[in-house]
Amino acid sequence: MQQSEIGMIGLGTMGRNLVLNIGDKGFSAAGYDKDFNKLQLLEKEAGERKITAAKSLEEFFSMLKKPRAFIMLVPAGSAVDAIIEEALPYMEKGDIIIDGGNSHFTDTDRRIKDLEGRNIHFMGLGISGGEQGARLGPSMMPGGDKEAYSRLKNVFEALSAKVDGEACVGYMGHGSAGHYVKMVHNGIEYALIQLISESYHLLKTLGLNNDSLADIFEQWNNQELRSFLIEITAGIFRKDEEAEMAGKNKNRRRLIDLIMDRARQKGTGKWTSQDAMNLQVPVPTIDAAVMMRDLSADRDMRIKCSSILKGPSPEYNGNKEEFTRRLKNALYFAMITSYSQGLALLKKASESYGYETDLRKVASIWRGGCIIRASVLNDMLSAFAKAPDLSNLISDANFSGILNSHQSDIRFIAGSAISMGIPVPALLASLSYFDSYRSRWLPANLVQAQRDYFGAHTYERMDKKGIFHTEWLKE
C-alpha cells in the first residue's frame, strides 16, 4: 500500500532518529536497512507513530506515495552509488532520491547529471546537529532540483530546528549547493574547534584545573561567545570517568585528561580547503585547523621531538584574570574571521558553480540545530539582510568595528603564546587574515618579479596598463 510520505534507507543512529523525528511531526515514513537488527530496533521505537519497517527494497518502494521520495543516510562514496543502482529498478519518472550524507559536491553533481536522463530528481541534503539534532530538530541544507524541494518543503520544515519561529532549513540552490554549504559548514566547524582547543591550551598554562576551565567556558557562553561548541566544552571539562572503568575503590578522574591527544577527521574540512584553493579564496584559519589535525595524528614524532627541540618554558607570570578576559576577546575575533572566510567561499562558489545561494538564508538556518550555531549568526543575518551582495563580513560596519576593537587583545594573546612557545596556528592565521585585508599594499610585487625572473610568467604595472615581461639578466 502506497501510504508513506517519505522513506529512509540507512537506519543507523542518524537515520533512525530522523525517521522517529518524522513520525513525531505526524508524517508517515518507511524505513529500510539490510541489517535486520536495525529494522527491529526501528519497529520497537516507532510505537504508535506512522512508521513502517520494510523487509526488502521492493516492499520499501511499495510503501511510498507517488512520486516516491526517500533519503539515504549511508557513508559517502561507493555506498551511495550502490544504493542508487539497487533502487533504480523500482523507481519511476518524477521520483526523488535525497542523499543526506556528507558526499563530496562533485559526486553530487555527477549523480544529478546521471539521473536526469531517467527523469529522476536527485538532491544533496546537508544535515547538521548530530544524533540529538536528527532526533529533535537539525539544521538542514537541501540543494538541487527546486521542484523536488517544493514537494518536500513541508516535511523538511517540520523536521528542522526552529529559531524565533523560523525553520532552520531552506533551499540552498541548484546542483550540489546543499552538499557544498554543508562542506563549508564543516570547514568552519574545524576552525572553531581548533580555536577553542588553542584557548584551552593557553588556559591550562595558567594552571587552571578542569572545574575552573568549565567555569570560564560557562561564563563565556553567557556572553558574546554564546554557541553550541562553547556550551559543550564547559560540559566536557566536568565529565568524570565512567565508574565501571575507574573501579569501585578508585577516585574517578576527569575524562578529558584520559583522552588521547590525536585528532581524527573524515575529510570535509580538507575538502573545504581544497576547493577554496581551487577558487582562490583564502581560508587560512580553516587550513590551519586541518593542518593541526594532521600534525596531532603524528603523535610518535611529537613525542620524539619533545625531547630534542628546545623552546621557552610555558609559564605566564602576568595577571591571569586580564589574560582570560583578553583571550575571550581574541577568540571572538578569530571566530568572526572563521565565519567570514567560510561565507566568502560560499559566495564565490555560488557565483562559480551557478548555485544562486542566498547567504542570508545560510546564516539564518545555521542559527539553530547545527554544530556551529552561535548567537553571532544573528548579527550575520542582519548584515546580509542589509547588503545581500556583501562579499566578506569583515567589511560590514558592525563586524569591522568588533575586529578593530579586539585586535589589541588577539595581538596580546598571540605575542604571549609565542613567548611561551605554545602553538596557536589558527589564532595567528585569523590575525594574519585581518592584517592582510587591512593592508593597502602587500609584497606580492616581489612575488611577481621573482616569477617573471625564473619563469617568464609576466606581471602588471602600477603606472601603465598591459602585461609585461623583463629580461632580468640583460644589461
What low-confidence regions span 5 or more consecutive residues with pLDDT below 50? none
Alpha-beta classification:
alpha/beta
Provide the residue-averaged pLDDT: 94
Helix content: 40-55%
- Tally of individual helices: 20
Number of domains: 3
Strand % is: 5-15%
What distance lies between the first and last C-alpha atoms, to the nearest angstrom? 87 Å
Largest sheet: 7 strands, mixed
Number of strands: 9
Shape: globular
Return the string of H and E elements: EHEHEHEHEHEHEHEEHHHHHHHHHHHHH
Radius of gyration: 25 Å
Instruction: Write out the strand line-up for the largest beta sheet, numbering strands in chain order.
Output: 3-2-1-4-5-6-7
Look at the structure and name the CATH superfamily of the largest domain. Answer: N-(1-d-carboxylethyl)-l-norvaline Dehydrogenase, domain 2
CATH topology description of the largest domain: N-(1-d-carboxylethyl)-l-norvaline Dehydrogenase, domain 2
Key features?
single chain; about 475 residues; alpha/beta; Rossmann fold; N-(1-d-carboxylethyl)-l-norvaline Dehydrogenase, domain 2; Single alpha-helices involved in coiled-coils or other helix-helix interfaces; seven-stranded mixed beta sheet; two-stranded antiparallel sheet; 9 strands
Overview of this structure, please?
The structure is a single chain. The chain is an alpha/beta fold and 475 residues long. The chain has three domains: 6-175, Rossmann fold (3-Layer(aba) Sandwich), CATH 3.40.50.720; 182-437, N-(1-d-carboxylethyl)-l-norvaline Dehydrogenase, domain 2; 443-475, Single alpha-helices involved in coiled-coils or other helix-helix interfaces, CATH 1.20.5.320. The chain is built from 20 helices and nine strands. The protein has helices at 13-24, 36-46, 57-62, 78-87, 105-116, 130-136, 146-159, 177-205, 210-220, 228-238, 243-246, 268-279, 284-297, 299-305, 320-353, 359-365, 376-386, 397-420, 425-437, 444-455, and strands at 6-9, 29-32, 51-54, 69-72, 96-99, 121-128, 139-144, 162-163, 166-167. A seven-stranded mixed beta sheet has the order 3-2-1-4-5-6-7, sandwiched between helices. Strands 8-9 form a two-stranded antiparallel sheet. Helix 2 (36-46) links the parallel strand 2 and strand 3 (51-54). Helix 1 (13-24) packs parallel to helix 6. The chain is globular. The termini are far apart.
